[in-house]
Sequence to fold (707 residues):
Amino acid sequence: MSALVPLLVTLPLLGAAIALIAGRHRKTQVAVSIVTLTLVLAIAAVLLVVVDAGNAPIAVSVGDWPIPFGIVLYVDRLAALLVVVSSIVLLAVLLFSVGQGAADGDDDTPVSIFHPSYLILAAGIFTAFIAGDLFNLYVGFEILLVASYVLITLGSTESRIRTGVVYIVVSLVSSILFLASIAVIYGALGTVNMVQISERMTQLPQQTQTVLHVMLLLAFSIKAAVFPLSFWLPDSYPTAPAPVTAVFAGLLTKVGVYAMIRTETELFRVNDVNFVLMIVALATMIVGVLGAVAQAELKRILSFTLVSHVGYMVFGLAIATPAAIGATIYYMVHHIVVQTTLFLAVGLVERRAGSTSILRVKGLMRAAPVIAVLYFIPAINLGGLPPFSGFIGKYALFNAGAEVGTPIMIVLIVGGIITSLLTLYALMRAWNLSFWREEDDSAETEERISYLGSAPAAAIETERRVIPRIMTAATAGMVAVTVSLTLFAGPLYEVCARIGASLLEPVSISQLEDEAGR
Amino acid sequence: MDVSLVLIVVMAVLFACGVYAMLERSLTRVLIGFLLLGNATNLLLLIVMGQPGVAPFFGAAASSEEMSDPLPQALTLTAIVITFGISAFLLALIYRSWQLGQADTVEDDAEDLALRARGVAAEDAMDDETELVSDDTVTDFVGLATAPITVLGSRDFAGIRDDAPTDRPAGRREEPPRRIRPPEGEDDA
Fold:
């Protein structure tokens, strides 16, 4: 079984190489990308079932080096679950972009780098999820970041270069901070293996632990877009092509959140910065969603809600009980899927109506009922209306917070509920204006919404283009996945709860060696 | 753990210079800043290696005490390669943004200008303010007293309403960049 683990990384890299060689044959590229990601999805699903049933993580020491010295790939339930979810998302977005590319006839354009970059992005994400040591996590981050630099400046138009530069420079700073923290941790503990770090960390003085802890959290918070390190995100995501924004929004910040989960549970078992995390979580939720309310452009609204919902995950981490960690992971899975789906639906709106400004787009409910449904379901899901998974995730988080019951928890729960309502407000206003408003609208309504006219990007218009069936199908598939998160909430939530419980149990290095030996 | 004071001082200076250079608006200086920061971090990795010793795995050392720690060296090598790759990408990005800024031969089409005018009409006072600079410069860079390669000028805040949602690559772009306007008097031509 352990032979399957390295394939999660090597298959996408191999696929990227083939796709790069086949740069002029679009059909080959598409076939290679789809086959690669499907294989990864199958392998990840097998690993998840095996790891969950056997209750034993799989550790692989690459190149057969003795455990603390070589690279260790470590697949526990959390890693396996996230690889499954992210490969589903990557596959759906790939299909969406294939539909878009085929319809726009880009056979002769120089975007043949899209498929290789996309597969390398996938390899980076999977590396980060299954990394067993901090340095390999860093390498995974770098792989996915470099691929994302290429994707966010794809086509290198003026606006993409401008926003891409912001994204790239911010990411570079966070990478350097991460590398510096690894160096300092190695200096303090003499190891980069996560299990060994976790074992040795308790022997350090408390102040040293706090310094290391804060350094790592800062580096990851930039990637996860946690307030006040989140301002780069709403500026840089909306300009990228629709499928790229969708996959970035769903996965890239979550890799940061994943690294924070590992930091908070495995590496640092002492809850020395949890109070700060709670304040930060509250600020992330409220500031993010207020940004969303002020926007008039769908992609920007969604980018701000993305920031605000990262706050829920930080909140769950700050509670730091097994139930809360489990709820955080469920919420993370829900958010990856729903946020990507919404961005895909907005990509459809953009093609259909020639704009994503909620002031310009009207009457979509009548003109394109399918898109309307595809937007509405994930929108109320993100807003947290029962019975959808957003409600389940938030309820689980608030429940875990209420069990602790300290005054700050109550403040955070109230903040979370307000954020949830404001998210619903922002998304439903977009629904009312773009979908429900009739084409020939009264001057009174125009007057009432004119205050939004000064919001950034409210005046953009693009070409209206036909929507190929495959794009709608990919989006519909993702909507089905969001609904299935609700339908199968029971089993999924149990897996998440088991992850939460097992993450807080220490693993010893000898256990890791045993698992690698099998 | 004994470490060389010189290395620590050099690292600190590199970090300071790197942060300073990265705070500049010019992309080339950001690149230099990034290189300095990357090297400073590599030095940090070498510093945490501890005391230098003879090469490991070579048989020259009588005991493991005399060897230097090989792992940080491996980490540094990896980090150097990553820094190298990213610098190459940044250079390409700088070149591209220079290219775009110089491209003042791109013509504006009528529809684009009309859209622009509509956008300006709807703008509030804050947007007008940020656009003051752009109204008398034709391209991004010509006429700016600072470094030639500047992409993050204050005038760019108006550029949020840019040609963003086009999914076309540069060669087939239908909308020319809106910021580049013909000089006064040529509008009717």
User: Anything to note?
Assistant: The beta strands of chain A are 58-61, 72-75. Chain A touches chain B through 58 residues (CB under 8 Å). Chain A has a mean pLDDT of 86. Residues 12 and 119 of chain A are 5 Å apart (CA to CA).
